[in-house]
Write a structure and sequence with these properties.
By secondary structure, the chain is mainly alpha-helical. It is 82% helix and 0% strand.
Length: 243
């Protein structure tokens, strides 16, 4: 019975991976990514299409944002674009909802498909286990600080936290709060750009508000590094005492 249960779990995970791969192929084909070799152009075209859809565009925008989180596509263009095709308030609300749903979806996929394997591996390494235990206990603080930092990419963090012991509730709430300042700022900057055609331009001077958020983010990076090191050392010492 136990072997059959393990076999069923393996097949279920394999099926999930197959679904993800199939969905990825379909999305790439539909959006024409292979034809243009440009994620930026593809997202600009998508935003232009959403802009002409009216109310239903809200739902499609949220769905596109979730897909970007799941398939590790940088969401900055979508966030800036929300400021262009919607007003600042609507755009910020939509991105806030979409980013949290995207973060949650990627987190659940990562935890469901990978967490069990990771748990087996870290049992062999006390230091890794200590870090994992520490994140599990103090997860909401670490999640919140990393979400404030520009050093940690949004799409990578979703899967990174999925393989730690941070609780779903702490992850979801801390992600929403931590991402909110950046969400509002980037949507506002998008509203200043005002043109989808120039959305992907790299030669753009940062606004004073943007510099402020970057400085806050860098401070958060330092804090989370120091904090994780501290609690991990404490957890490791605790593990050693039990041996």
């Amino acid at each position: 019975m136990e072997k059959r249960a393990k076999s069923n779990k393996f097949l279920l995970k394999l099926g999930g991976i197959a679904v993800l791969i199939t969905a990825t192929i379909i999305i790439i084909k539909q959006l024409g990514i292979l034809d243009t070799f440009s994620i930026t152009d593809t997202l600009q075209n998508l935003l232009q299409w959403i802009q002409d859809l009216g109310t239903i565009g809200y739902l499609i925008f949220i769905f596109a944002y979730i897909l970007s989180a799941v398939f590790l596509i940088p969401a900055s263009i979508l966030t800036f674009g929300a400021g262009i095709i919607f007003d600042v308030i609507e755009g910020a609300v939509l991105v806030s909802i979409a980013s949290v749903l995207g973060a949650i979806t990627a987190f659940l996929i990562g935890r469901y498909l990978a967490r069990g394997w990771v748990s087996q591996q870290i049992e062999k390494y006390p230091k890794f286990k200590a870090v994992d235990e520490a994140v599990g206990k103090e997860g909401w603080k670490i999640v919140g600080l990393t979400r404030l930092s520009p050093v940690f990419p949004f799409v990578i963090l979703n899967y990174a936290f999925a393989i730690t012991k941070v609780s779903f509730k702490d992850y979801a709430i801390a992600s929403w709060i931590g991402m909110l300042p950046g969400t509002i700022m980037y949507v506002y900057i998008g509203s200043l750009i005002g043109n989808l055609a120039t959305l992907g331009a790299t030669e753009r001077e940062k606004t004073p508000l943007e510099w402020v958020l970057y400085i806050v983010g860098l401070i958060a990076t330092i804090l989370v590094s120091v904090y994780v090191t501290k609690i991990s050392r404490q957890a490791l010492d605790s593990q050693i005492e039990k041996i």
